[in-house]
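Late entry, written up from scratch paper. The run itself happened at the end of the previous shift, but nothing got recorded in the book at the time, so transcribing now.
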Amino acid sequence: MLVHDARLSPGQALSLLAVTEGTLGIDIGGTGIKAALVDTSIGKLLTDRLKLATPRPSTPPAVVDATLELVGDLRASTIGIGFPAVVDPGGIVRTAMNIDPGWLGVDVVQLFSDRFGRRVTVLNDADAAAVAEARFGAAAGTSGLVIVITFGTGIGSGFLFHGELVPNVELGAMELDGHYPAEDHFSGRVREVDDLTWDEWGSRANRFLGHVDRVFTPELIVLGGGIAKHWELFADQLDEELQVVPATMGNSAGIVGAALSAI
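Output as recorded:
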């Protein structure tokens, strides 16, 4: 029996039951790496969600080794990976705000494909979450512009127009109120770093989301990331006129979206 949400250090071995059905979805974030097999027809995990800490430093060899360790004997012919950076159409990493700068210029698609022994698909991790929310979650059936904002280690953002992904939009990298990048002041991680109450953090989130709303006038903003499970603790700080709803895919969003990108 697989362990649900297994929390492992990169040095621990993990023995998994070999499975060949479904698509393998991997969500690499600034603080954790998660993986599971996914039934992409319904957006459900076929195995328990597995997790370990992103290594420090998060260099390319360390992250790839940790990912392979996490996956273990879990096998699939199709693999999708969400990655915490801008990944251009050629598979090259172009930013490193929440990952080691040694990734800059790396062909992340080729690197993982070589280690897995098969071609993999790689996209930005927030884009992966947005794809899942558009197909099976809070944004399903919404036309026009939808923006998925993930508050976590940083601030990720996924843009969808009539359900189609507009990749690599990094709203966390913009300047806001003298803070550059904005995620240094408004991210989910900052709530703990600055010892903010939920009301105080909610006020910051409201400022960020209000700015995004004024600039892009989306039909809907979906708030996701690790902070979303605490929605009830800060939602009353968000302006009523903002069309903001909590993400519904939870911790599976990045995994499911990564898997969907690979089919």
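Residues 141-247 form a domain with the Nucleotidyltransferase; domain 5 fold (CATH 3.30.420.40).
(Scratch paper discarded after transcription.)
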